[in-house]
Amino acid sequence: CHFPETARVHLKNGRPARKGERLTNPDLARSLEMIAEGGPAGFYRGPLAEAITSHIRELGGCLTMADMRGYRASVVKPYAADYRGHRLYTSPLCAGGLTTLQMMRLLEHYDITALTVADRLHHCAEVMKACWPERLKRYGDPAFVEVDPDAELADALIDRLHRRLKRGLKSPAPGRLVYPEPNNCTSHISTADVAGNIVSLTQTHGGAFGSMVTVPGTGMTLGHGVARFDPRPGLANSIAPGKRPLHNMCPFIALKDGQPFASYGLPGGRTIPNNQVTLALHLIDLGRTPEQALAAARLHMEGAEPLELEKRAGKRVFAALRRRGHRVRSRDPIGGPGHVIVLDDDSIRQAGATDPRHEGRAISI
Question: What's the CA gap between 210 and 227, in Å, rounded?
Fold first, then answer.
């Protein structure tokens, strides 16, 4: 076994736990108690930090106590854009929401309600084709790469992307993938209270069990965020000391007339920014319920065809997209589990739903 400590912690009698069986992780419980008692210093400066750095160096890595002590969490302002009378808020770079906001600004040029399902997906595909190269070629950690979010959402750039979009709508081209990312994972939760406070929270450990490395004695399995860098040097998202990689999480909160309207989000790697567009179109343009928005067929592409489309779209939609010149292949599911909460004007009446593709539930307490 390449990861004996991970196997010890996460397997039951040498095998994956079956549904209904209970796994315990007393080492992790003790680690959490140390963090609860010691706060940030209990993680970044004490025995836990020493255990993590020592184990990483034993494996040939270069993490040091100075790296741990030097880390600082940041409180940052969200990115925001207006869309059809709604104000959309999402996490800033290195997250994926800037790309979602760009796509929404492009789609605002069109009457979504007047389009057939196939035409709506056709527009979404070409919007993705226009915006993903911007993300993968130009975006990176704002501490290392100069990116002005206001300029990225301003009319000048949106008009340039719109010209690219119109060419694609007229004659779809194969497109180009700047670089792939094979790992898809993450978790999301949306919640609200009777006072109208809403939360949209996405967090990730990476694909499956992250790096697969569990630090002995801590119960903690480490993530693999470094894998999200572009391995080629000299690019916006190339690896560098102290640099954060691009990631795809982009929880959204929407306001309507200045009041909370919706919290929505989902996991799924690079499918997240695209699926957030699908959810927004169904909630805002089409007036769908949370259940209907989550059940809608999802489309995905990162700049290059073939388009990936869920079977629930139906054979006629697949055929219609192919007649428009697209290469389309089936993929199920595309992202999820998603979660949506929509609030009425008084914020007391709320409708919540979870993704029908996966296990989960909406609860009221």
Answer: 10
